[in-house]
Amino acid sequence: MRRVAFYAPMKSPRNPVPSGDREMARNLMTVIHEAGLEVSLASELRIYDRTGDPALQSGLRASARSEVDRLTEELPQDTALWITYHNYYKAPDLIGPAICRARNIPYVQVESTRATSRLDGAWSGFARDAHTACDAAEVIFYLTQNDLITLQRERFGDQALVHLPPFLPRTGLPPAGPRNGPMLCAGMMREGDKLASYRIIAETLAHLGGDWRLEIAGDGPARARVEDLMAPYGDKVRFLGELDPARMQAAYGRAALFLWPGVNEAFGMVYLEAQAAGLPVVAQDRPGVRDVLLSGHYPAPDAGPPALASMIRRLLADPDTRLARGAAARKMIERDHLLPAATNIFAAAVAPLLETQP
């Protein structure tokens, strides 16, 4: 069995804090294994600068150089491929390209972005590092059409750009529910984009009227802020807290629809999970998000909460449409966004690279 080294500079798949990045890293390791390869986590060194701090970046580069020295000696000799997940201007891969040069093995990236707008300013050094790492990759798997724009524009040489649609780490669909329960939303409760989505939800509820219920799955440091936003709606809103996979699946199973605006989501694993369970989705038409949604009309962000509320009212009033949209979403997920499809795409793209290795 060929050996593959895996690395996620922003967040290790072993990180104890749940997030979409952690889940995607874990899912990718599953795909590599399903492709018949032995995958091991090469490093857990976190290279991440949230605020744009040149001194922090300098210290992280020094740590990365030490890690390169260690791995050049310790990486198993039969390693045939290196794969890095999520190289971008806040979390560049400062390790993989150097190891691959030293050991003469192919270098691959998944979900990388080229942010030319960041080549000036507080993240300029890390942005250049991320670009350099992109240049070193023989194959870059992109997850959304939005990422493809700059990857294609800045493509290095004959580098292969391969579409790998976001996927769930399962081979089949969960049972579909009756779609006649409460609405459901799910998201980490933290400041920034997640809290912005919760604000939009709270404003949307004010436009609904009538008899409705909402369950919210998730927890985090901004929970009190989210609870304050939902306080005007009393017991019409129920907080479920952070759920394990079984209880999360039960929440999808009893819901009527899934609501999440998707502010600055790269794509959103929750959309895949909800649609796999047969839920119609209410979301805004945003880059990345639109790549994982069943085709249809979704309101533009500048249409605001009233447009989301109008979509909700139509779905809540029409059970047949809810069932039809949910069934169509399940078919889309089964065809394009489960483990078998992802494994086939990945295996076909890396096979030529593995053939070059002894």
From TrEMBL:
Gene3D superfamilies: Glycogen Phosphorylase B (3.40.50.2000). Keywords: Transferase. One of its GO terms (molecular function) is hexosyltransferase activity. This is Glycosyltransferase involved in cell wall bisynthesis. The keyword Chaperone does not apply. InterPro entries: Glyco_trans_1, Glycosyltransferase_grp1. The keyword Transit peptide does not apply. Residues 208-332 form the Glycosyl transferase family domain.
